[in-house]
Amino acid sequence: MNLLGDISQITLEEMFANIFTVQAITRADRYRMKLAILDNKLTEEHLQALDRLLYAAKRGRLKLID
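Now predict its structure.
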């Protein structure tokens, strides 16, 4: 799933993989997730990945950076 049209060519899958690799969520990542949620374009797999991200952030395993 491509988000932000011509602004960014990153897919949700690539974004989730990058977040888990660097163990940090940027402001741009949060914005992309918000857009996907508001557009109701999340698949079941995306929702599961988002749940894992939120759980990891809650547990302190992911940094929230600007």
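The longest helix spans residues 44-58.
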